From TrEMBL:
Segments forming domain SGNH hydrolase-type esterase: 3-94
UniProt protein name: SGNH hydrolase-type esterase domain-containing protein
Family matches, as Gene3D superfamilies: SGNH hydrolase
Native species: Paenibacillus antri
Top-level taxonomy: Bacteria, Bacillati, Bacillota, Bacilli, Bacillales
Listed transmembrane segments: none
Length: 106
C-alpha cells in the first residue's frame, strides 16, 4: 500500500520530479517484493494525483500486472482531517478502512 504525494506538494516538489521518484519507488518495491499485490492510493487531498496515477500506468506499461491505482476521490470530507488539515483523524481513518476493505478483497 502506498499513499504518497501530499508532503511532496507542500514542499514544492515538481510534478515531473514526483512522478520520476514515485515510478522509481514502485520499481524498487516490485524488485524487493516480486509477487506482492501493490495498491497505490490517490492522495486524499489530491496532491500529485495525476502523477501518482501515471506512475502506476508506467509500471503497468513496463509489464507489472499486479499493481493497482486506488482512486480515493470523495472518500474524505473536511471534517475527516486533524487540525493540520492534512492527516485523517480517527473518523477519517475509519472511513478509509471501510472504503479500502472491499478494494483489498477483490
Amino acid at each position: 500500500m502506498s499513499n504518497l504525494g501530499t508532503n511532496d506538494a507542500i514542499f514544492n516538489v515538481s510534478e515531473p520530479s514526483f512522478r520520476q521518484t514515485q515510478t522509481a519507488f514502485l520499481q524498487q518495491l516490485r524488485q524487493k517484493h516480486p509477487n506482492a499485490r501493490i495498491y497505490v492510493m490517490r492522495p486524499f487531498k489530491g496532491h500529485h494525483a495525476a502523477m501518482t496515477q501515471q506512475a502506476v500506468q508506467d509500471r503497468i506499461a513496463a509489464g507489472d500486472t499486479n499493481i493497482r491505482y486506488v482512486d480515493t476521490t470523495g472518500w474524505l470530507t473536511a471534517g475527516d482531517y486533524q487540525t493540520d488539515g492534512l492527516h485523517p483523524n480517527d473518523v477519517g481513518m475509519q472511513k478509509i478502512a471501510n472504503l479500502l476493505a472491499p478494494v483489498l478483497a477483490q
